[in-house]
Design a protein that fits this description.
By secondary structure, this protein is α/β, with parallel strands linked by helices. It is built from 15 helices and 14 strands.
């Protein structure tokens, strides 16, 4: 961290200006892309849609660079899309009270540096301190959303802010104009074709287009075997570094960007890792999206295409409760056959089961799943978005 009084870090509190003037958002990268993916989207939206100054502290800039190609992994400080990005490492230093922002967001309980917490306590007025929690569809988060906790040894209060799927939660990330841009893109076949060509994607015609983003334990090999045997052609786009073993086995060549092979009814193509705007457009371009974690889960829903979610695995299979909670909400408006097909595919994918036992039913239900996704997206957009809810909450308590 810069020495005390560094003008690039220090912020000031102006009661006459819209609150908050400045936010510090702290992020530790746990699963390579999920944590930084959420934080990067939030930081950009707070700047673009709410004209708030944001400093994003990140401990793994190399992973960050994967989703934002302009990031310099070696830089101590840099600016991207209006966001100040700072490297968070062992040299954090001893900040002054004047170095603390109006609002401090601790993403996913990442544990702030003790020196920064001490500076928060010394600041007058005290900053608003928020722990941005993980997304969940479980009902208990509605009771815990916006709860506060007193810091045990300092005069500070932390608030817990839960993203979610109802009006009693913090909502979902959704930038201004996102759904309008998606609809325009999906209704413009030449634009979609130009985009796919631009990222090196070759699409056999006709073919069911799929994107695949999963954790290493997903049964990707089983999925490839199933699609290869399916007489209905499919093309599966996989970012480099994802499902490497299964992709390498299928391709029979290194799983590097540009590699491509067709076997039976399946074409697998490796794409370069895309930045977030291009990844959104890939989701918009596909008929089915396999997504993982939190960030791509939310983006798959705004894509309004059928999807299968791979949840981050937890000890003692605790993640299956969270998976079932979202399935309950997501399938509530489906007919019995469509709901059964969605549940079977999601459960098989997350339990590393044979995808051949559920894929036929799932693929047969794609038209109904696509129709349901249109209604599901309309339902979700009735709730205010995460960044707007966050700003409203900050102003209420600040």
């Amino acid at each position: 961290m810069p020495e005390s009084g560094d003008p690039d870090l220090a912020v000031s509190y102006h009661p006459c200006m819209a609150f908050p003037e400045n936010i510090h958002l702290f992020c530790r990268v746990v699963d390579n892309f999920g944590d930084i993916g959420v934080c990067w989207r939030l930081a950009r939206q707070l700047v673009a849609d709410h004209q708030t100054g944001v400093t994003l502290w990140v401990d793994d800039l190399a992973s960050f660079q994967k989703i934002c190609s302009g990031i310099d992994p070696q830089a101590v400080q840099q600016r991207q899309e209006g966001v100040v990005v700072r490297r968070w490492d062992a040299s954090f230093g001893q900040p002054r009270a004047a170095d603390v922002a109006d609002v401090v967001i601790e993403a996913f309980g990442c544990a702030l540096p003790h020196s920064y917490i001490a500076a928060m306590a010394a600041r007058s007025p005290k900053p608003v301190w928020i722990n941005l929690e993980y997304l969940s569809a479980e009902s208990w988060i509605e009771d815990c959303h916006a709860m506060q906790s007193l810091y045990p040894s300092l005069p500070l209060v932390k608030y817990f802010f839960f993203p979610g799927f109802s009006a009693r939660t913090g909502g979902l990330m959704r930038e201004n104009g996102l759904l309008e841009r998606r609809s325009a893109f999906q209704n413009d076949p030449p634009a979609m074709s130009s985009f796919l060509t631009g990222i090196g994607a070759q699409v056999p015609m006709p073919a069911c287009r799929m994107s695949l983003f999963c954790y290493p334990d997903a049964p990707a090999g089983s999925l490839f075997d199933t699609l290869q045997a399916d007489p209905r052609p499919s093309v599966c786009f996989v970012p480099q570094g994802v499902a490497q073993e299964a992709v390498h086995t299928f391709l029979q060549q290194p799983a590097e960007a540009g590699a491509r092979a067709t076997r039976g009814g399946l074409t697998v193509q490796v794409l370069p890792f895309l930045d977030q705007p291009d990844y959104d457009r890939l989701l918009w371009s596909c008929d089915v999206n396999f997504v993982r974690g939190e960030d791509s889960l939310v983006r798959a829903q705004w894509a309004a295409r059928p999807f299968v979610w791979h949840i981050y695995p937890q000890e003692e299979a605790a993640h299956h409760v969270k998976l079932d909670a979202l399935l309950d909400r997501y399938t509530a408006g489906m007919d019995q056959d469509t709901a059964q097909a969605a549940r079977a595919a999601w459960q098989a994918w997350n339990r590393r089961s044979d995808m051949g036992k559920c894929w036929g039913q799932f693929r047969n239900q794609l038209p109904r799943l696509a129709s349901h996704m249109a209604h599901w997206t309309e339902q979700l957009k009735q709730y205010s978005d995460l960044a707007s809810n966050l700003i409203q909450f900050i102003r209420k308590i600040g």
